[in-house]
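Recall that a protein's primary structure is simply its ordered list of amino acids. Everything else, from secondary elements to tertiary packing, is in principle encoded there. The following example makes that idea concrete.
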Amino acid sequence: ELSGTSVQAISICPGDTATPIISHQHRAHVNDIPTVYRANYEQAERAMRESVDKGISPAQVAQVIWQAVHAPIPNVRYLAGGFLQKIAPLTKRILDGRLFEWVMKKYYGLS
C-alpha cells in the first residue's frame, strides 16, 4: 500500500526480550483451564517465562533498530534474538507446518 510513496516500511522481529512483559499480561488462572489442557498450559506458561527471562536485552533490540534507521537502504526485515529465534522463521518456511509444530512442542516440552 506504500508503493509509489516515499514511505519505507520495515519489520523488526525482536524475539524474546528480557523485559517484565509477561508479568503485565492478563493470563487465565490455571483453575479456569479445563483439566485436559492444564498440564500443557502450565508447561507453556513456564516455557514462555523462562524464554523471556533468558531473552536478549532491550539494548540489543535498540541496536538493531538503530542499524535499521541508519541504513542507507534498509532491509525489509530485521531479526534480533538468540540463534534459535533467528533461524525459526526460515525453518518454518522450509518444514511442513505439522513438522514445525512438532519440533516447537518438543523444544518447549509440550505433549
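The mean pLDDT is 89. Residues 92 and 100 are 6 Å apart (CA to CA).
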